[in-house]
Specification:
Alpha-D-Glucose-1,6-Bisphosphate, Chain A, domain 4, 37% strand
């Protein structure tokens, strides 16, 4: 597997709406099987000031990453902790590009220098996970204005 995962999906909504769906409404569509608290109804939160986490109904929190760049409606860059940890994050860069009335969402997931040694063992799971996540995002965008 290469040192870059590249996944894309086209959403039936404009970029500003796609960005909002991905960031502010992430709990509404993120796949239950890709939640990290053990609670399929947990709340995921992502804030421009930097924090990205999940909270179960019982209050257990898991840090999922850190927002490094919040540039609506075009781009989001995250330090990504799932599969590693805060000391060995990977990087996820998400682009939101208009295609007529729709938006192409592109996810670029790559190792950082501190996670490079872990990448080859984690990349197949990231690849499968992003396929599930983007399918859920596409489904959530159906019928949005």
């Amino acid at each position: 597997m290469t040192d870059l995962l590249h996944k894309t999906v086209v959403l039936a909504c404009p970029p500003a709406r796609a960005f909002m769906l991905f960031t502010e409404q992430i709990s509404e569509w993120w796949p239950p099987e890709r939640r990290h608290t053990g609670d399929p109804h947990s709340q995921l939160q992502m804030v421009e000031s930097g924090r990205f986490w999940e909270r179960s109904a019982e209050g257990r929190e898991v840090e999922l990453g850190r927002v490094r760049l919040w540039d609506p409606p075009e781009r989001l860059v995250l330090d990504w902790y799932p599969g590693t940890d805060a000391e060995h994050p990977t990087e996820v860069e998400i682009h939101f590009v208009a295609e007529g009335e729709a938006t192409r969402v592109t996810v670029l997931h790559r190792p950082t220098p501190v996670s490079a040694a872990l990448w080859s063992s984690r990349a197949p799971r990231y690849d499968a996970s992003w396929a599930l996540v983007l399918a859920a995002l596409e489904h959530a965008s159906a019928g949005l204005p």
